[in-house]
Amino acid sequence: MNHLSDARETVLKASRSYYSHLGYCEERTRTETTKHELDFLEFVFRTHATHKVRDVLDVACGSGRHILGLAHRGYKCTGQDYTLDQVQIAKARAKREGVSVKLLQGDATKLKYESKFDAVLALYVLFLLPDDDCVLACMRQVYRALKSGGIMVCNIANPFYEGENWFSLKSIQHGHYFNEIRVPGMRYISFDRVQDFDPLHGVAWWQETHVIEVPDGVHIFLEHERLRLFTYWEVLHYLQVAGFKKIKCYLDWKIKPSRKPKAEWLVFVSRKD
Ligand SMILES: C[S@@+](CC[C@H](N)C(=O)[O-])C[C@H]1O[C@@H](n2cnc3c(N)ncnc32)[C@H](O)[C@@H]1O
């Protein structure tokens, strides 16, 4: 093995290690949030789809918290993610939990399905796609992948959110964001620094340092992230251009309409007619 392939293997191992640590952390810290989001998803399936939702696709499933959760609740599930390490973590988790989910590596902007699914999820991902053409391509392909009467559920972080979060304009203008999570057997610290911010196009570039302290040592990972700060109107417009006509926006995964204008998360439910 030459130096280059040695180095490549080291990087791949680090990334596998990063995602498996992250998956471990997520399973322990986001249980309640995920349960709430799953209840919300089942509510919108019942309320917005014109027929019973059975077949569900998650186009960026990560380590599988939504798609595995839905499989546990009896749905026929397919999950895909661009990052192979994430898919492998999701597969291991599905095996451990004894739940059947089809899991594949795949790009959310290169979906090949046609009239196949009753519901398609694109959660916590649109703002990470490389540019707006990719976002529109993803929405168009989701539209094509849906059966008539089926629904797409996607969400964006609200840049006008006034609290502390890595996507808020407040943190971006501040220049950095710090977060610490403790779960049994692990301390997870992330320190994110704004590398650049383009206020005209609504794009921020973050440089992230993740420190994971576990009994076998301290692991440090560096990452870069491009974050598109979408507004409500932009997402609504792209969904309409993609072909969706019935679109409803929920605030912060809440079923009840809220008057709170500066929600943290905007969740769009769009039906293909
Ligand atoms: C913040 S995570 C969200 C994962 C999952 N939806 C959740 O809510 O836990 C974003 C995920 O999007 C994936 N991703 C980024 N770009 C993608 C693309 N073009 N196609 C598919 N997945 C993508 C990443 O690999 C990562 O797993």
Task: Provide a descriptive summary of the structure in words.
With 273 residues, the chain is of the alpha/beta class. The protein has 7 helices and 11 strands. The chain has a 7-stranded mixed beta sheet with strand order 3-2-1-4-5-11-10, with helices on both faces. It has a 4-stranded antiparallel beta sheet with strand order 6-7-8-9. 36% of the residues are buried. The model has no long low-confidence stretch (mean pLDDT 91). S-adenosylmethionine binds next to loops.
Which ligands, by name, code or SMILES, are bound?
Answer: S-adenosylmethionine
In what order do the strands lie side by side in the largest sheet? Answer: 3-2-1-4-5-11-10
Please bin the fraction of helical residues.
25-40%
**Order of helices and strands, N to C?**
HHEHEHEEHEHEEEEHEE
- Number of H- or I-type helical stretches: 7
List low-pLDDT spans. none
Task: Please summarize the sheet with the most strands.
Answer: 7 strands, mixed
What's the Cα radius of gyration? 19 Å
Beta-strand content = 25-35%
How many beta strands in the DSSP annotation?
11
Average pLDDT number: 91
- Between the first and last Cα atoms, what is the distance in angstroms? 55 Å
Shape: globular
Entry summary:
The chain is α/β, with parallel strands linked by helices. It has helices at 3-29, 31-48, 65-72, 84-97, 132-145, 169-174, 232-242, and strands at 55-58, 76-81, 102-105, 117-122, 146-157, 176-183, 186-198, 203-214, 217-228, 246-251, 265-271.
